[in-house]
Amino acid sequence: MTVYSVRPEATQAAIEAVLGEKIKHISTALGEVTVQVAAADYLAVAKALRDAPGCQFEQLIDLCGVDYSEYPAGSLDGRRYAVVSHLLSVSLNQRVRLKVFAPDDDMPMVASVNDIWNSANWFEREAFDLFGIVFDGHNDLRRILTDYGFIGHPFRKDFPVTGHVEMRFDAEQARVIYQPVTIETREITPRIVREDNYGGLQ
Known about the structure:
This protein has three helices and nine strands; from the N terminus they run αββαββββαβββ.
């Protein structure tokens, strides 16, 4: 059986027909459709993208957090934290990137889509762990990559590169302990050494 890929323009048209006014921004670039929606519509949009004819995005293949606080041109609607999901329609052989911004920078929160696509479970836990984005409705939202006693969210742009504390095993106490960071912050600029006739060029 031959499977044909739906052209991105057709995918965008189908999404526009299904979501209508729930779309805040939609575009096609480099053969990929990106649609942005408001946090209040996120759950309803996710269900529509999964179920509606012409969309049928049965699989969530990736979900991640983004911190736009140091983005040169700013984010699309001025918010700091976004959740970006990549959806795949196996039946129609098409993809879409779904983006939603958390409305509150101090307490970033969006709805969980784990009940729609169960593959979101660990992805949402990772975004919570690394960015501090809370997924409302997730039934097991806890850290997945950092240590149990870890403080902060290491992928936030304002998190120090060296971290706040370091962990080591103390032989005298026979346990793992936390202590202040002992790494000195310094800038390392690599030297570039080239011969006069580098690469045979004069």
